[in-house]
Specification:
Blueprint (H helix, E strand, L loop, with lengths): L4 E6 L20 E2 L3 E2 L2 H9 L4 E5 L5 H7 L13 E4 L15 H6 L2 H5 L5 E6 L2 E3 L3 H10 L4 E7 L9 E5 L5 E6 L8 E10 H12 L8 H11 L4 E5 L4 E3 L3 H11 L2 H4 L21 E2 L4 E3 L2 E2 L4 E2 L2 E3 L2 E2 L4 E2 L4 E7 L4 E2 L4 E7 L4 E2 L4 E2 L11 E3 L4 E2 L4 E2 L4 E2 L8 E2 L1
Organism: Anthropogastromicrobium aceti
Enzyme class: transferase
Catalytic activity: alpha-D-glucose 1-phosphate + ATP + H(+) = ADP-alpha-D-glucose + diphosphate
Length: about 400
C-alpha cells in the first residue's frame, strides 16, 4: 500500500561540539527539557502531522538511541505497515558501508523508501528542537507545484553568514543558494528540512552517487544540482520555534527557554501539539519540607531537599539538604550531595557531585561559559569546577578545573 509521504530522519550525527555530552551518545539521544531526548521532537512532529512511516538513519554511538526508539510505541509508530524503522549503515553487494554524507545516507536506503512507493519524501534532522506541522509544509509544496521545497527561517542579517541561505523571489521560488557566504544576499536560513518529489530525489541521488568528486551532501551537491537544472524549487517560511542545539551554550539556552514558554516560543505544555517521549517508569517526585524550588521543571523520581532555582531536573535527580542548583540543566540519575553548589552548567546523566563541591558560577551580565560534566563522572568533595570547564573524567576531592 503506497504512502503519500514518508519521513527519513538523519540521526547519525556525532555532535562533536557538545564534547563530554556526546562522547558515548549520539546527539539525537541527548536529553532535553526534563523528560525528553532531542529526537522526540521530529518523531512527535511526524505523528502529529499524520506521517506514520519514519526511517531513522543512525551511525555514531547508536546503542542508547536504538534502545530508546524501540518499536516506536511512545510516538504511536508501532505499525504493521509503516511505523518506525532504525536504518544503520550495512555492507551491500556494491561495497558501500558507512554513510559518507547526508545524500549518501538516503541513497543507501532507496530500497527502503521504494517499499512504500511514496509521492513525497521529507528529510528531517534528528538534532534540532522544533515544533512544526509537516502537513502544512506539504500543502505548500503541492500548491506551488514544487519538485523540492526547503523550510527556512528569517535570521538577523548580521548572523546570516553562519547559515546556508536561500535567495527567493516574491513567489518564494528559489533562485540561488549560498552556503555560509561572506556577503549574504538573503536572510532566509535553511532549517535542513526538505520535501522532495520522490522521483526527483531518486534521480538526483543516483546521479550524485555516480559522481566521484561529490561530497554526497544535500547542501553542497544535491541542492546546487537542482538549481543548475532549473527545477521547481521553493522556500517555505516557518515562523515557529526552531533551534539547532549543536553547541553547549545553545543547548543550555534552549533548556532555559523551556522555563519561559510565554516569551521563548517553545511550549512543552501545549495539549494541542504534544511532544511524546518514553516513560521513565519512576515514581512521582518528592519535594522535602526543607526544600526551596523556584521556576523550575522537576520530573519523575526526583528527591529535592535543597534549593533549586530556574533549573531543569531530569528523572531521578537527588538534591540533598543545603545543596544549591541554579540556572542549571541536570540530567537523569544525578546526585548532588549536601552543601554542593551547581550553577550555570549542564550536568549529564548519573553524575555524583560531592559534598560542598562547586560546579560553575553564577550567571552574570558579563556572560560566562557553561560548565559541562560528562555522564557517570564523580566530582569529589570540595572540588571546584570553573565556568568554562568540560569534565569527562572523575575529579578528586579538593581539586580544581577551569
Amino acid at each position: 500500500m503506497a504512502k503519500e509521504m514518508i519521513a527519513m530522519l538523519l540521526a547519525g550525527g556525532q555532535g562533536s561540539r557538545l564534547y563530554a555530552l556526546t562522547q558515548k551518545l549520539a546527539k539525537p539521544a541527548v536529553p532535553f527539557g526534563g523528560k525528553y531526548r532531542i529526537i522526540d521532537f521530529p518523531l512527535s512532529n511526524c505523528v502529529n502531522s499524520g506521517i506514520d512511516t519514519v526511517g531513522i538513519l543512525t551511525q555514531y554511538q547508536p546503542l542508547v538511541l536504538n534502545e530508546y526508539i524501540g518499536n516506536g510505541q511512545p510516538w504511536d509508530l508501532d505499525r504493521l505497515h509503516g511505523g518506525v524503522h532504525v536504518l544503520p549503515p550495512y555492507q551491500q553487494a556494491s561495497g558501500s558501508d558507512w554513510y559518507k554524507g547526508t545524500a549518501n545516507a538516503i541513497y543507501q536506503n532507496i530500497s527502503f523508501i521504494e517499499r512504500y512507493n511514496p509521492q513525497y519524501v521529507i528529510i528531517l534532522s534528528g538534532d534540532q528542537i522544533c515544533k512544526q506541522d509537516y502537513s502544512d509544509f506539504l500543502r505548500f509544496h503541492k500548491e506551488k507545484g514544487a519538485e523540492f521545497s526547503v523550510a527556512v527561517m528569517e535570521v538577523p542579517w548580521d548572523e546570516a553568514s553562519r547559515f546556508g541561505l536561500m535567495v527567493a523571489d516574491e513567489d518564494s521560488r528559489i533562485t540561488e543558494f549560498q552556503e555560509k557566504p561572506k556577503n549574504p544576499k538573503s536572510n532566509l536560513a535553511s532549517m535542513g528540512i526538505y520535501i522532495f518529489n520522490w522521483d526527483i530525489l531518486k534521480k538526483y541521488l543516483i546521479e550524485d552517487e555516480a559522481d566521484p568528486n561529490s561530497q554526497n551532501d544535500f547542501g553542497n551537491n544535491i541542492i546546487p544540482n537542482l538549481l543548475r537544472d532549473g527545477r521547481n524549487m521553493y522556500a517555505y517560511r516557518f515562523d515557529g520555534y526552531w533551534k539547532d542545539v549543536g553547541t553547549i551554550s545553545s543547548l543550555w539556552e534552549a533548556n532555559m527557554e523551556v522555563l519561559d514558554p510565554e516569551h521563548s516560543g517553545i511550549n512543552l505544555f501545549d495539549e494541542n501539539w504534544k511532544i511524546y517521549s518514553r516513560n521513565s517508569g519512576m515514581t512521582g517526585h518528592r519535594i522535602g519540607a526543607d526544600a526551596e524550588v523556584q521556576n523550575s521543571m522537576i520530573t519523575d523520581g526526583c528527591r529535592i531537599h535543597g534549593k533549586v532555582k530556574h533549573s531543569i531536573l531530569f528523572a531521578g535527580v537527588s538534591v540533598e539538604p543545603g545543596a544549591v542548583v541554579e540556572d542549571a540543566v541536570v540530567m537523569g540519575g544525578t546526585v548532588i550531595k549536601a552543601g554542593a553548589q551547581v550553577r550555570h552548567c549542564i550536568i549529564a546523566e548519573n553524575v555524583v557531585i560531592g559534598e560542598n563541591a562547586v560546579v560553575g558560577e553564577a550567571l552574570s551580565e558579563g556572560g560566562k561559559g557553561v560548565a559541562t560534566v560528562g555522564a557517570g563522572v564523580y566530582i569529589g568533595d570540595n572540588a571546584k569546577i570553573g565556568p568554562n570547564a568540560m569534565v569527562s573524567e572523575n575529579v578528586k576531592g579538593g581539586e580544581e578545573q577551569w
